[in-house]
Predict the 3D structure of the following.
Amino acid sequence: METQQPKLVLLFSGKRKSGKDYVTGLIQDRLGPHLCCILRLSAPLKAQYAQDHGLDYEQLLSAGQYKETYRADMIQWGESKRQQDPGFFCRLASRGAVQPVWIVSDCRRMSDLQWFWKEYPQQCLSVRVEASEQSRVQRGWRFTAGVDDAESECGLDQGVNFDCTISNDGDATLLEGQLERLLSLAREKSQ
Ligand SMILES: Nc1ncnc2c1ncn2[C@@H]1O[C@H](COP(=O)(O)OP(=O)(O)OP(=O)(O)O)[C@@H](O)[C@H]1O
Ligand SMILES: C[C@@](O)(CCOP(=O)(O)O)CC(=O)O
């Protein structure tokens, strides 16, 4: 299927267990799958890595511990691909997307943002999901050297003026309120 020009591209980033998948899932639920798709840059990476290493792709995609066992090695594997072509996973993840609103759920590096900014200069909005260390620990996060101090987690810590920041520390009402602006914008743009 041919990719169609999006009307809005929400570029999400955030630390491990800040809730990127949770928050982007909520937005897609509200907008519906005809209006909004979620693009995971890590999906083509995990698909190829699973195939090469005889692993379970679905489990690598899920929020459980399984993917954490392989995270450091997946990062290395993905970085070797990105060195040859920084837009490699951006291109694969967005291939065939036809909805007017795209949510990229896992931007990690400046090159991820730059690729979308260059391809869709009028449509992009960068969104940072933030959560306290305490919330992240409750969701299963433990500091891991080589992961939490590497570009995969820290690549967007500096140098980006995010268009929007969402605090996701577990208060559902507070979260809903923060999503309203993005939901209104998405509905407006997709008309
Ligand atoms: N506001 C919330 N309310 C309830 N549960 C939440 C909330 N935010 C996140 N979670 C839960 O915390 C866990 C981690 O969240 P999630 O997978 O969305 O984080 P992530 O930033 O995508 O992490 P990773 O980078 O590891 O993929 C999940 O089990 C998710 O359901
Ligand atoms: C290997 C990697 O793609 C894992 C991402 O997994 P997740 O988005 O945290 O589920 C991280 C990276 O590309 O640096």
Remarks:
- The pocket of adenosine-5'-triphosphate (ligand 1) is lined by residues 14, 16-22, 63, 139, 168, 170, 175 (CB under 6 Å).
- The longest strand covers residues 8-14.
- Strands lie at 8-14, 36-39, 101-104, 124-130, 164-167.
- The chain has a mean pLDDT of 96.
